[in-house]
Amino acid sequence: MAQQQTNAQAEAEQNAEVGHEAAAHTEVAGTADEHIAGGTFPPFDPATFGSQLLWLAITFGLLYYLMSKVALPRIANILEVRRDRIASDLGEAERLKRETDEAIASYEQSLAEARQKAHGIAHTAREEAKTHIEAELSKVEAGISSQLADAEEKISAVKLAAMSEVDAIAQSTTEAILEQLLGSGVAQNDIAAAVAAAKAN
Q1: Residue 187: inside a domain, yes or no?
Q2: What residue numbers bound the domain in which 191 lies?
Q3: pTM of structure
Q4: Domains identified in the chain, total number
């Protein structure tokens, strides 16, 4: 019996809850029907303008506070970091450009100095070669002159020796011819006088 009474009470409570829910749905539906019947959309209802403006002000104030205290400082911090990074990158690029220009100028100066040095070395080598060649040429010319002088002296000596022997050869030849022609000897004095007269002519 007690169990049956408990089951009955539970069913009664469930029925009561169902009745309350139905009543709530009926009330909500009735309110919606009243608004629809009135033809005014709630946000456009003049009776709710005050509360709407109040909530608008509160919402705007909260949004403004959040933006000014949270979002905007973060955005400003991000922009500042980005600006600093850009400035650092520009400074680094300017430094690299300056170093590159200095390196190019130093390279060009070194190249010009190397060219000038090479030109000086070539000029010096050319002058040294010219001096050496002139010295060697002078030595050769001096040797040739010395050899010519020696040759001329030898030729003169040979010529003098030959000329000194010409008289003797002429006398002997004249004596041999006269012996063949005349058949008798001729005096040496006569032959020498005849050779001297022939040389004089």
Answers
A1: yes
A2: 50-200
A3: 0.36
A4: 1
